[in-house]
Sequence to fold (556 residues):
Amino acid sequence: MIRVENLTKRFGLMRAVDNISFQVGRGEIVGFLGPNGAGKTTTMRILSCFIAPTAGAVTIDGFDVLRDSLEVRRRIGYLPENVPLYADMRVREYLEYRGRLKGLRSRRLRARVDEVISRCGLGDVRRSVIGVLSKGYRQRVGLADALVHDPEVLLLDEPTIGLDPNQIRHIRELIRGLAANHTILLSTHILPEAEMICGRVLIMHKGRILASDTADNLVKTIRGSMRVVLEVSGGAREDIHRALTSVDGVVGVSAESTGEWHRFACACDAGADPRTQIFRMIAGRGWLMRELRVERTNLEDVFVSMTAGEKVS
Amino acid sequence: MRTFFTIWRRELAGCFLSPVAYVTIVIYLAMEGWIFLQSAIHNEGRHETLEVMLFISMLFFVPILSTVICMRLFAEEKRLGTIETLMTAPVTEVAVVMGKFAGALTFLLMVLFPAVGYLFIVAALGPGIGALDSGSVAGGCIMLALISASSVAIGLFVSLLTKNQIIAAICIFCAVCAPFFFKHLAIMLPAGMDRVVATLAIEEQVLDYARGSLDIRPVVLHLSAATFMIFSAVAVLDSQRWK
Fold:
C-alpha cells in the first residue's frame, strides 16, 4: 500500500532522510520509532505530499506523491504533529469544512461527520469552539479530521503526544479499532505504545532506518534477550563477579556496589535461563542473596541499543 | 471548483469570526463619514462633485484595509501550522490561492462599499445638491473594486512569503501605498517616462472614473496586476513544497 524506495530529503547541507526504503502492506499497522530529529516527521510530510523528496520514489496505493499528488491526498488521512486546527471554528463546523475540502457533499458529508464525532468521542463538544478545547479533545478533533473522508491510509504523527494516561488509552483503542479497515503508519516516542499497537516497527535514526521487524523479533536480535539481576553480599565483589561469569548461559556481567551489598546484572544467551545455577552457586559458596529476578529485554532496550550506536549482533 | 467555493466560504467566515473585523468596520465607517463630511463642507461652492470627494477619500483607506485583511491570509496559516492540513487535503494550489483571494476581496468590498451610502444620505439631506450622477457613482465603484482586487492580490502574495504577520503587514502596506507616490514621482522623471509613470497614479484613475470619464487602461492595468500576483502566489505556494 505504501512503497518508499531510496527516499532522500536534504535541507541545505543536512540530510534529514538518507536513502531509506520500506513498504507497508494493506491492513498493516506500522510504528515509526526514532529519537527527535531522526527524520520521522520529514518522512511523514513527504508521504502526505506536504513536501517533495529530494530523491527517491514514494507511492501510495500505486500513485506517486509527485505525479499523482491529488490522488494520493484523496487516499490518506494525515494527523500532523502538534495538531494544527482553526481555533475560531466550532468542532462540527470544522469537520464539515474539512469534509467538504476532501470531496464529501450533502448527506454523505453529514453522515461521515456524525460517525467520526461519535467514534472519536466528540459528541459533548461538537458545538464548542476549538480554541477552548483541552489538548486531548484537540487531538481527537485532529484524528476525526484525518478520518472524516474514510481514507484507506492513515498517517499519524505522534498521535498521543501530550495526552494524559486515560486519553492515551482512548486514542490507542481507537487506533486499534481502525486497524481492520485501514493501513496505518504512526510515529511515536512511546515504545510500549508501538509494542502494543503495531504489528511491525521501523526504527529510524539520523535519517536512516536501522531495523524493520516485529517488536518480538527485534527483541530477539539483540544479544542477551534476558537479564538476571541479583544482589549479593558476604564475598568480595571480584570473586562474585568471576563466579557469575563462569555460570553456563551467562554472557556478560555488570556490577555496582552499595555498601556491603553488590548488585549484578547478568546478560544471558538467547533462550538460556541460568537462575537455578546462579542460586546453587551462591548458596554453595555461603554468600547471602536478597534479590534474584529476571528483566526481559523490551523494545526500549532495542531502541536504546540501536539509536545509541551500539552494535547489534 | 467546489474546493474553491469551500475555501472562499471559510475565508469569508474567518474574517467575520474575528473581532478585528467589526472594530475595523466601525472605525473605517466613522472615519470615512467624518472625512467625507469635512471634505463636503470645505469644498462647498467649488467645482468638485460629491462623488469625487467620496471616492478619493475611500481610496486612501484601501491600503489600510487591505493590509489588515491580507496580513493574516497565509502568514497565520503558517504560524498556526494549519497550512500543513490545508495543503495535505486534496486541493490544488490554484483553488487555495483563488479561494483566499476571493474571500479577502469579498470581505474588503463588504467593508468598503457601505460608505457609498453616505452619498445618498448627504444628497437626500442637503437641499440644492440635486441628483447624483449614477454613471459617476458606478465608475467610482468599479475603479475602487479594481484597485481593491490588485491590492488584495499583492497582499496575498506578500503574506505567502512570511509567517510573521507584522512583517507581512509592513510589506503589504508599503507595496500597496507605492502607487500613491507615482503622481509625484512622474514630476521628477524625464519626458516620456513621466507619462508612463503618471498613468499608474491611482488617484488620477479614481478621479477620472468618479468624474464619469472612462478609460480602459486602468482596467487592464489592475486586472493584469491582480492576475500576475495571483499566478505568482500559485507558483510560490507550489515551490514551497520543494524547499
Observations:
- The mean pLDDT of chain A is 86.
- The radius of gyration of chain A is 25 Å.
- The domain at 2-218 of chain A is CATH 3.40.50.300 (Rossmann fold).
- Chain A has two domains: 2-218, 223-296.
